[in-house]
From TrEMBL:
One of its GO terms (biological process) is regulation of signal transduction. It comes from the Eukaryota. It is a single-pass membrane protein. This is Nicalin. Belongs to the nicastrin family. Pfam families: Nicastrin (PF05450). Keywords: Endoplasmic reticulum, Glycoprotein, Membrane, Signal, Transmembrane, Transmembrane helix. The lineage of its organism: Eukaryota, Viridiplantae, Streptophyta, Embryophyta, Tracheophyta.
Length: 386
């Protein structure tokens, strides 16, 4: 996909190509700690809520299937806010830890998510009951999809599905399950939860999309087909996630109890959602080029700190990097940096070119015979024996 012509943009890109060596994934996490019954030492189970903050925003011009306004991030922040209200009161604090993770590197095979997961110690990883990754939920009407890698018969998957579909039914829409096995020997993933699945952590992705968007490198097309992010869709998505988690945490399965009912003080706040949507839609979020104290990253961190504890920000260098974005324009540019193989190939091509050119010149100037004689072994002088 080399589009290099010589102009100022190209020069800029080449400078950025050098700069890419300095690219990082930044992730943020925050905890809401559950209430331990008694003083027992055993660890509480954890539910993780995850969203990739650059999947959508980094690609305002991503061609297929993303809500450019970061609906997943907005939803995660609102879910964190709602549960922080519940968890601030010991009477309504659940016996589950809640872990909120904002990851980056979505367009890079969710490699940032993988790095985040690898930072967990084994005890933490094993304590995760399940993780719910919120993908784009900003422009749907009456159905959402839950993508999983474990078979639908799995007890956890069954439970997640039961919780989500019963809540969805009460709210007047459908959630459908889509199962796709992961291929352990292939590092490519289509959804964020697959990075969890690769480490044997139960996880699901909630999305309005029934199939994963094409990989960024493959599409290359840069026109966003979606322009409309519906606030109401996000509100319904938040309700679905929050109610379903609450049902799991408080064991209200099968009961029609709405904790986050409209008009209660635990209702989803449309102003909060709108204001974050505005921030997200005005911020170019090109993760590899974020510095640790980027204002947007700082804003996310502060927001997590307002609602959760032990907020932690980590920055990790990117590896296997071969795509990058032009962060200065709204258009997304993808370039492939030539690999070593490419260099070798180039050398080979240049080499053969020179040989052909040399032969051509010799033939035209001195004739074919001269050329042949060049490559022939010099006639050995036969020593006559007497
Ligand atoms: C993600 O990481 C893997 C393994 O380190 C690497 O092979 C791959 O190229 C990375 N993908 C992207 C898109 O950066
Ligand atoms: C899994 O991935 C490997 C490596 O990419 C590939 O060779 C193999 O065919 C894949 N298996 C399935 C079942 O798709
Ligand atoms: C993002 O949201 C704003 C309103 O919050 C809207 O005006 C804008 O068109 C949206 N942009 C995209 C690309 O969806």
């Amino acid at each position: 996909m080399h589009k290099c012509g010589l102009n100022f943009r190209t020069v800029g890109f080449c400078i950025k190509l050098l700069w890419i060596l300095d690219a990082y994934f930044i992730w943020l996490q925050g905890w809401l700690t559950g209430l331990k019954a008694g003083d027992d030492a055993h660890q509480l189970p954890t539910i993780a809520v995850v969203a990739s903050y650059d999947t959508f925003g980094a690609a305002p011009a991503l061609s297929v299937g993303s809500d450019s306004n970061g609906s997943g991030v907005v939803a995660l922040l609102e879910v964190a806010r709602l549960f922080s209200l519940l968890y601030s009161n010991p009477k309504t604090r659940g016996q589950y830890n809640l872990l909120f993770g904002l990851t980056s590197g979505g367009p890079y095979n969710y490699n940032g998510t993988r790095k985040w997961l690898r930072s967990f110690d084994q005890r933490l990883r094993e304590s995760i009951d399940y993780a719910i990754c919120i993908d784009s939920i900003g422009s749907w009407e009456n159905e959402l999809w839950i993508h999983v890698s474990k078979p639908p018969e799995n007890a956890y998957i069954k439970q997640i599905m039961e919780d989500f579909s019963s809540v969805a039914e009460e709210l007047g829409f459908n959630v459908n399950l889509k199962h796709k096995k992961i291929n352990i020997s292939n590092p490519r993933v289509a959804w964020e939860h697959e990075q969890f699945s690769r480490l044997r952590v139960t996880a699901a992705t909630l999305s309005e999309l029934s199939a994963a968007p094409e990989l960024l490198e493959k599409t290359g097309g840069l026109i966003d087909s979606r322009h409309f992010v519906d606030e109401k869709a996000i509100i319904r998505g938040v309700k679905l996630v929050a109610e379903s988690l609450a049902r799991h945490i408080y064991g209200h399965q099968g009961k029609n109890i709405q904790i986050f009912a409209d008009n209660s003080n635990l209702a989803v706040n449309p102003y909060y959602i709108r204001s974050w949507l505005d921030v997200l839609s005005q911020t170019p979020r090109v993760a590899p080029f974020f510095s640790k104290d980027d204002p947007f990253v700082m804003a996310l961190k502060k927001e997590l700190e307002d609602h959760t504890d032990e907020v932690n920000l980590q920055r990790e260098a990117l590896d296997g990097m071969f795509t990058f974005y032009d962060s200065t324009s709204a258009k997304l540019n993808i370039y492939q940096v030539a690999s070593v193989t490419f260099d070798l190939l180039l050398l080979l091509v240049l080499g053969s070119y020179l040989i052909v050119l040399f032969s051509f010149l010799v033939i035209t100037t001195r004739g074919l015979d001269d050329l042949i004689s060049l490559f022939r072994r010099p006639p050995s002088r036969k020593v006559k024996t007497a």
